[in-house]
Amino acid sequence: MLEVTCNDRLGKKVRVKCNPDDTVGDLKKLIAAQTGTRYDKIVLKKWYTVFKDHIKLSDYEIHDGMNLELYYQ
Amino acid sequence: MGSKKHKKESKKKKHRSRSRSPLQNEERERKKHRKHKDRKRDRSPDVEEVPVDSHLVKEKEATRSHSRSSSESRDRRARETSRAAHDDADNNREKSSESEARTAERSQSPPSTSGGAQESLSVDETNKLRAKLGLKPLEHAEKPAEDGKIKDDLGEFYHKPAANISQQKKSEKIREKLEVRKEKRKIEQKLQTTLLAEESEDDDAVAWVQKSREIDKQKREAAKRAAMLDEMDAVFGVSELVAAEAAQERQQSYSRHMLRGLRVAHDIDAIADERDVVLTLADKEVLAEDKEDVLVNVNIVDDERTKKNLLEAKKAKAGYRAYDDEADLEAAALGFARPVLAKYDDEIHKGRDDKTRGFHIGDDHVLEAKHFRDLMRQERLQGGGEKRLESLHLPQLRLASDYLDEHEIQAKFKKSKRKGKIRKKAKHEPIDVDDYDAGTAPLETDDTDVKPEQLSAAAAGADSDTTDPDTELQLALARARRLRQAEAARSLRHVPKVEEILENVKEEPAEAEAAASSMVLDATAEFCRTLGDIPTYGQAGNRDHLAEIMDFEREDMEVEPEGDSNAGAWSRVDVDNEKPADLAAGSCVGLAAEPSLGAGVWGALQLALSKGYLERAGAAPMPHSAARHLLAARHYSIEDKTYGEDDKYGRRERGGHSGPLQDFREKNNFRPNIKLEYVDDDGRPLCPKEAFRYLSHKFHGKGPGKNKQEKRIKKAVQEGLMKKMSSTDTPLGTLQMLQDKQRETQSPYIVLSGVKRENTN
C-alpha cells in the first residue's frame, strides 16, 4: 500500500491510498471518488510526464508519499 | 482552524439556504442544534474526515436535483460542481445525524498523518470505495521482518539494515571499560602483598622491640667471634708475618730516587715554582722502539696544544700582514730574531723534537741554564752593554682635530733649507741664506756703508777659502763672498746720494725690469715667429738661428763669475751664456736683409735660394706633411667659414623667385660609357653575385668564415685549372699517350691486355 498526494494547486489536495499494482486509471477513479470530479476529466502528471491510464503505478515508479500534479481536461 | 472553516461553511449554508428547498431548511434546523456537538468534535485532532460515501451522496443529490427539475438554475449546478468538496463536507454533516454508527466508525479511523488541508480516506474507507469501484482491497502494509531486514520497494530483496553507529560506539565504550577493569584487577592481584604497615599493625610495638633486640644480640656475638679469632692469630704469630711483608712492600715501592733521570716533556718554565704538579706517564705506542717513559701533566699538555693551535690559526689567517704583531715587536726589542715570512717557518716534522724536549728529573744544570737565561734577559732589558733598547710602542692614535692645540701653537719649526740646484733668477748676486741668518751678509740697500777693515777681512777670508778643498758649499760661499766684495768696492768708490738713487730708479724702465732673464714677446717677434713656417725660410742658410733669441737682457758681465767650469757651483740658466746678438747686423729682428743682386752670380743664386726658386741639394728636407698635419686645425672646413652669411642671405634671395635661372636642357649627345666592374682584393673581376657578397661583407664589417674562404679559393683554383686544361685531351694526357703508342707500333689499334703485355715485354 502506498499513499500518493495529488495537488491541483487550485485548492484541491488529496491523499489517496492505493496499491502499487493499481493502474493509473484506478488511481484516477479513487481521486475522483475523493474529490468529486469525474475520473475521465482528470490528468495526472509528474513534470511533463502525463501518466497513462492503463499503466501500473509501480511501472511509473510511483512510490509512497509522492506528489502528483492534478490537472483537468 | 477547524472552527474557522466551520464558520465559513455556516456562511455558505446561510447563503445556500435561501435557494434551497424547505426540506433542506428543516434539516438545517436540526443541524443547528447539533452544531455545538459538531464543534466539539471538530476540535479533536482528527479533523476533516471525509465520509466514504460523500461523493455518492453528492451524486444522489445531483441525480435528485436533476430529477427534481432540469430547469433548476444552471448556475447553481455549476456552483455545486465547483464546490463539490466543500459540499461533500457539508452533506456529510447533514447526513451525520442519520447514522450514529458512522460517527463511531469515524472516531475509530486512524488519524491522518498530515495535519494539512488535504483529504485522506482511512484504509477501511478506501477498501470500501475500492470494492465499489471493483478493485481489489489495499494490500496490507507488511510489517518489517523480525530479523531487522527490510524488503526493498519491489519486495524482492532483503536489505541488511545499516549499522547503528551510535550503538556501536556505545558498545565499544562499554567493552573498553570492561577491559580496563579487567586489567586493573589483574594488576591488583599481582601487587597484592602484605604491606609493612598492615603487617606491623597486628604485631605491635612489642614484637618490633623483640626483633631489634635479637639483631643486636647477633651483632655482638659476631664481634666476639672476630676478637677470638684475632687472639688466636696473635698466638700463632701470623700478624707479625703480615706486618713484615707490608714493610717489605713499602720498601720496594716506587720512591723518589726511582724517578731520577725520568724525562718530563715540558719546559721547566711551564711548571710553576713551588706548586705541586701531578705528572703522569705519557701514552706511547705499544710497538715504540724507545722504551723511555715520559712524564706529562695533562693540563700543561692541553695548554700547549691550545697555544699551538692558536699560533697555527694565526699563521693560516695571516697571508699578508702590513704590520707586525705587538708580540713580534716586543720580541724584536728584546733582541730575539724576528721571523721573516713566518708563515713558512712551519717545520715539517715538528713532532720529532718532542723526544729531546723537556728536562730530566734530577738534572740540575737545566735549572741553572734557565736561571742564567733569566739573568741575561734582565740585563738586556736594563740596557746593559752598548746596546740601547728602544721601545717600539707608538703613541696612541688620536682623532685628528681641526684646530691647533696649545703645544702646536707654541712649537716653532725651523725652516728647512732648500738644497740642490736652484734655478736662480738673474739677480745681481747669489747670496747665501746662511749669511743672512748670521747677519754677515750686507743688506742690499745702497746706503749701507762697508768699512775697509771689514772688506780686507773678507778678502782674507776669501783667500783662505780658495785654498780649501773644493766642496760645493765652499765654492758657493766663495763666490758669494767675492760678489759681495765687488759690490762693496763699487759702493766704496761712490757712495750715492738719495737723489741719485731716485734718478737711477727713474732711468730704469719698468719693462727692462720685467724683461730680466725672460723673453720679450712683442708683436714683431710674434710675426717673425710665424714667418718661420715659411717652407723656404732658413733653407737658404741666410738666417741666423740665434737671432731669434737675441733680445735677452744682457747681463752685466762683471757680475758673472768665472764661468761654467765650476759644475758644482750654483748653476745658471744657459740664457745668460748666450752671446748678445748684435743688433746692428739687421734692422729687423726676424728678417735678414735681402741679399743684393748686385754681388754677381753668387748673389743671384743666393737670392734665388732665399726666395725658394732653387733648392739646395744637401738641404734638410722641408718640414713636410707629417708635421704639418699635426699643426693644422683638425676640425676646420671651408663650409664653416661661409656658414653664417650664406645661410642668411642666399636663402632669402632665392625665396622670392625660386627655381633655376636657366632652362633645363637635355644633353642629347651625352652617351656615358659606363662599365661597372667590381674587382676583389686580388684584382680578379667579380660577377654581380660575388660583387654583392663582397660589398656586403665590407659593409657589415664582417668577413666570410674560414671555411667559406677556403672553399672559394679552391673554386678559383679549379676554375684556373679548367681554363688551362686542353679541350682535346684528358687531364692525364691519355689521348696523347694513345697516339704516341700507335705511332710507335705503327698500327691503327692498341692491345689493351695487361697479361699479354707482360709476355710481350
Automatic annotation (TrEMBL), chain A:
Residues 2-73 form the Ubiquitin-like domain. The keyword Lipid metabolism does not apply. PANTHER family: UBIQUITIN-LIKE PROTEIN 5. InterPro entries: Hub1/Ubl5, Ubiquitin-like_dom, Ubiquitin-like_domsf. The keyword Metal-binding does not apply. Keywords: Ubl conjugation pathway. It comes from Spodoptera exigua (Beet armyworm). This is Ubiquitin-like protein 5.
From TrEMBL, chain B:
GO terms for biological process: maturation of 5S rRNA; mRNA cis splicing, via spliceosome. The keyword Glycosyltransferase does not apply. InterPro entries: HIND, SNU66/SART1. Keywords: mRNA processing, mRNA splicing, Nucleus. GO terms for cellular component: U4/U6 x U5 tri-snRNP complex. It is found in: Nucleus. Residues 1-150, 646-666 are annotated as: Disordered. Residues 108-124 have a biased composition (Polar residues). Pfam families: HIND, SART-1. Its main location: nucleus. Residues 1-19, 30-40 have a biased composition (Basic residues). Residues 55-105, 137-150, 646-656 have a biased composition (Basic and acidic residues). The keyword Nucleus applies. PANTHER family: SQUAMOUS CELL CARCINOMA ANTIGEN RECOGNISED BY CYTOTOXIC T LYMPHOCYTES (PTHR14152), U4_U6.U5 TRI-SNRNP-ASSOCIATED PROTEIN 1 (PTHR14152:SF5). Belongs to the SNU66/SART1 family. This is U4/U6.U5 tri-snRNP-associated protein 1.
